[in-house]
Every structure is written in structure tokens, then in C-alpha cells.
Specification:
Length: about 300
């Protein structure tokens, strides 16, 4: 089995729950405030590790109480933290409002903005491993990480969230691009909505492909997953569950997909497994702590 290497963000999520989201300029009464380990990189690493993959996280933490708490939590998940370094600034923080089973998020990068090419220079990548990243650390760092991965024959998985403009050079380093329809529309320069049919999404994904063998996987929440794997169109149906908190669902999908790929699972089966994992995560509060185990995912797939 290969290993999963995640270069990415580590945040403390400060979550406020309420009956509804406030309108602009409005104050609403909340129900409670909760603190959860988060950050897209950390979430993806937790998901991969809980699902049985040997996982290393590359990132930065501030020298503050949040940083100490996060280091303890991540270590308890069995994640290799040898490449998580301290930074002379505050730990990344996300301010999240959860209402009506949906969320709004404001992220303050803090130490995540200091993750550099030097941090990924000595990562021991080897053929059979999977390299994962997202857009909560500097893009030049991701390019350096994926450049090393491609040289080592390692599969690269990019989750371009939050959506930012990226170079064609970076896109060309990506083997599997995992994103939602909003991010796909942003990167392709077109308008997409929940009303768009599968054929439309596949057409836009085709426009974005940087290489003929590149896979573009579009996560659609309750509507399932569509993936353009080279020239093959793959559709994974949605799963009917009662969502309580969608924070981290996309990260769960990415981490689960990476763990499956590192284990040599074929792409279509890996998408199905990752979709089931994400459907479990939305039924729990929090990002990092909501990630399921392999046993839980297997049970959900068997029950469906």
C-alpha cells in the first residue's frame, strides 16, 4: 500500500450554530459556539488516516494554544507530523456559521500562509504514493510539491478550494482535480448552477482538462459525483442522508479518495467509496472529528 502525503492548511474551526443565517447587516441569536480541529489539509489527512492510509501532513502551526491543541489532536489520529513546523504567527483560524444544515466560512490563514517550497523539499515521496493539496496554502508551494511528486512518479490530487485563478503550468501537474460545480465554473470561466444537467458539467470539465489523461471529478453533494476520467464519463449517484453539518464534506471525499488510490483501488470504486465516506461526515458536527472509519464506510455501502 502506498502512502498519502497532504501539503495543506491546519486551522482551528470556531463554529457558531444558529436557526438561520443572518442577512447582511443583521444580528441573529446563536445557539452555541464550538471549537473543532479543521483546515482543508488537516481534514483531508485525518480522513485518509482514519481510513487506514499511512499519512503524512506538511504544514505550519502557530506557537499558540490553538497550535498546541491541533498538534495533539492530529497526532492522536495517527498522522505523521514530522513535517508540520512552527511559525511565528497565529495558527490558521476559520469562523464558521452553521444554520439550516448549511454553512458560511471566513478563513484567516495565519501560519498557513507561511508554508513554503522549503517545507516540501525533503518529503520522501515514492512511486505508489499519493500527493494531495488544496488552495489554503500558497500556490507556488503546491507547484513545488506536485513538481517533486511528478518526478517521483507519484499521483497528484488537487482540491482547488477556495477557488483561485491558477496557472496552466500548475493545472498540468495535476492527475486528479476534485472540485464542486461552483469551483469548476470559476476555473472554466462559465456560469454553472444546481440546475445544470450532467452533460453540461461534463462539457465544462472537458474544457478545463489540461491533459487527455487528466481526471476532473465534480462533487455535487446530495446529487452525487460526476467525473471525466480521461475520455470516460463516470457518474456516482447521490446518497440520501439527513445532513446536520456539511463543513468538511469535500475534504472527507478527497482524503477518502486518496486513501483508496494509495491502496490501489480502481478509480470508479474509489469514487463510490469516497462518496459514501462524505455522506457519513455530513451527519456529524465538525470537520476533522466527523471523518469516518473504513468499517463505517463499508457498512454504509453494504446497507445501500
Amino acid at each position: 500500500m502506498g502512502r498519502v502525503f497532504v501539503a495543506g492548511s491546519i486551522n482551528m474551526d470556531v463554529v457558531a450554530t444558529a436557526d438561520r443565517h443572518p442577512k447582511v447587516g443583521e444580528t441573529v441569536a446563536g445557539r452555541q459556539v464550538l471549537y473543532f480541529p479543521g483546515g482543508k489539509g488537516a481534514n483531508q489527512a485525518v480522513a485518509a488516516s482514519r481510513l487506514g492510509a499511512q499519512t503524512m501532513l506538511i504544514g505550519r502551526l502557530g506557537r499558540d494554544s490553538f497550535g498546541a491543541e491541533l498538534r495533539t489532536f492530529l497526532g492522536d489520529q495517527g498522522i505523521d507530523l514530522g513535517s508540520v513546523r512552527d511559525a511565528d504567527t497565529h495558527t490558521g483560524t476559520a469562523i464558521i456559521t452553521v444554520a439550516e444544515a448549511d454553512n458560511t466560512i471566513v478563513v484567516i490563514p495565519g501560519s498557513n500562509a507561511l508554508v513554503s517550497a522549503d517545507d516540501v523539499a525533503d518529503v520522501p515521496l515514492a512511486k505508489g504514493d499519493v500527493a494531495v493539496s488544496q488552495f489554503e496554502i500558497p500556490l507556488p508551494t503546491i507547484a513545488a510539491f506536485f513538481g517533486r511528486a511528478r518526478e517521483a512518479g507519484v499521483m497528484t490530487v488537487l482540491n482547488p478550494a477556495p477557488a483561485l485563478e491558477m496557472s496552466g503550468e500548475l493545472l498540468a501537474l495535476v492527475d486528479i482535480l476534485v472540485l464542486n460545480e461552483t469551483e469548476l465554473g470559476f476555473l472554466a470561466g462559465v456560469e454553472l448552477s444546481e440546475r445544470d444537467e450532467a452533460a453540461r458539467i461534463f462539457d465544462v470539465a472537458r474544457q478545463l482538462q489540461a491533459r487527455q489523461d487528466q481526471t476532473i471529478c465534480v462533487t455535487l453533494g446530495r446529487r452525487g459525483v460526476l467525473a471525466l476520467a480521461g475520455r470516460e464519463e463516470v457518474a456516482v449517484p447521490g446518497r440520501a442522508v439527513k445532513a446536520v453539518d456539511t463543513t468538511g464534506a469535500g475534504d472527507c471525499f478527497v482524503g477518502a479518495l486518496a486513501a483508496q488510490l494509495a491502496d490501489g483501488v480502481p478509480l470508479r470504486a474509489a469514487f463510490t467509496f469516497a462518496n459514501a465516506a462524505a455522506s457519513i461526515s455530513v451527519q456529524r458536527m465538525g470537520a476533522g472529528p466527523s471523518m469516518p472509519t473504513a468499517t463505517e464506510v463499508a457498512a454504509a455501502i453494504t446497507a445501500s
